[in-house]
Design a protein that fits this description.
alpha/beta, globular
Amino acid sequence: MASASVALAETPAGSVIPRPAVVTPAQGVFDLGEATVLIVPRGDAEALRAATYFADLMQRTRGLNLTVREGEVAPGAVVFHRAPETAADAYRLDVTPRGAVITGGDFGGLLYGSISLWQLATAEAGQGAATIPAVAISDAPRFGWRGVMLDSARHYQSPEFIKGFIDWMALHKLNVFHWHLTDDQAWRLEIKRYPRLTEVGGWRVHAGASARKDIDPATGRPRLYGGIYTQDQVHDIVAYAAARNIVVVPEIDVPGHASAAVAAYPELGVTDAPGAAVPAVPADWGVYPTLFNVEESTLTFLENVMDEVVDLFPSEYIHIGGDEAVKDQWKASPRVQERMRELGLADEEKLQSWFVARLEKRLNDHGRRMIGWDEILEGGINPNASVMSWRGVAGAIEAARLGHDTVMSPAPVLYFDNRQSADDGSPGRGFTSTLRDVYSFDPTPDVLTAEQARRVLGVQGNLFSEHMRTEDRVEYQAFPRISALAEMAWTPHARMDFADFRARLDPQLARYRALGIDYATIGLTEVPATPPADGQRRYDHQMKLCSAALPLSLIDDAPLQGERPALLMDILNPCWIYQSADLTKGLRFEAAVGQVPFNFQIGADRDKIRLGAPRTPEGELEVRIDGCEGEPALILPLAEAAGNDGITTLSGQLPARAGQHDLCLKFTQKELDPMWGIDWVRVSDPAAKRESD
């Protein structure tokens, strides 16, 4: 199998990602250089746009300045040719010693054909002219929805970054940019009729003690963090995306994830439910209980919002969220219960369905379609609504069986905020989704009939940004897994071959470097790292978590600016196992510990977290041998660390015990906030010379 895959990668299209449907090698080579002219049909604005895009790519990656010209075919040229009968986004690329011809029926086909030609021209890194083996490629996408979702609510990204990200999506033949614009932690989209949505909802104070100490001298209050997207900026981004065959699908989350909106306009909340007030935009992660109320005035407010949304975004679909709407406030509100009786609705799930249907009708009146996360199935939905499945694939399967179109976007495999390998110490969700995991996902499970499988519009990777504070981190988490996503979304399933893909990924990574795209290298090899020996630092991700109910790799609270370590822990059971320590001589124990704010809305699960009773006011790190029960063998007070916003190294002596033993590490503390975590541990013989880390 391996030798066959290598042979596949060495074919003339062996550097193209996603892998084309049909590749036919031919004789000879085409020399593409400074003298090559790009020819487009007269008056064909889309062909001109595709050719100009190709010329720009060649200039950025090989330093070639190619001329684009309307008119007749010339020898040695790259010709953009229209074939109206060609399917959407499909193309044919014919490369011969006499030149190259890109044939497409629409802009997408012409663009994607030019991107494949660019990939052939950059199969080898370097500047100047490129020699391209002759080949005929006939290609078309497997799915019409090939998407990436970017969460700009939890953390704001600049319009410049978003446009760059859209550019990079186009290079992978991805065509849907799902833009998550509202959530509990922010409302980013300017709505002119309701300016407080962004004036108030676009800003918050970072979680944690360090942020509370960061005082803005202009106000005397903690410095606000955030940002908004004006309607002019949105128009610009939408047009930029369209010029790359990408549609922008906005998400306005209802009826849950409403805290930022309710902070801006308190009358939108469930005002008669205990504890429902939102005095400021919050900074916790997780699932808030905050819901919109169900008064006619609130529905009118949201309908007016949708009117502005559809004016900004020409996409067929508008995403309304619908996920994680905990119904506690509705259940506790006498007015909501009265409203349910007025509407003749049996329960709160039916109430959510009614709420969503009102907004869907408004979208339908504008000629748009609604899509929502798979929870919208629970109370029943209208026949023309579409479902995005995130809680595994079950929602998509149910939707397809009920006759609804669906998009596969399941956690954890297509959640790119998950770590990229078990050796990945970067911040994110604690589960792993490797390059191979992404590549191997099949959006049409075998349980679907052929008719049901046709309901699968496509597939989408998600970048929820709770643990991606910076734009650099978004890049790192997205690439190169986006290449695997792109091939899985485009290439016929029978043509998928991970070993061949991995060979083609090397020239793709060279293109990333040429374009300045940051990417993760940690998951590129599948050989597990050797655990560090005693005497070397063993980082948190190189130890074993005692449990994995809700594992997260969390950024330390300080410093606010600059690099900060990520601390891997199960927040429902902060406990670590250092495996196989040789305690024969009794050893020096060192642990680097830090604090993270406990900013998690996890409902009743918070009450299940059990912490040991502290002996001192600040608490301790306890080390037990061969189990997590019984008396600790070493107790290290946290007093010194408690006064440090960064990382503190604690040390002590372990008792001698013959052979190798597992060490259980747990903290004691009075309160959950802040929560203690471990950056690294070292167990060493104090008499021996320490090895370098």
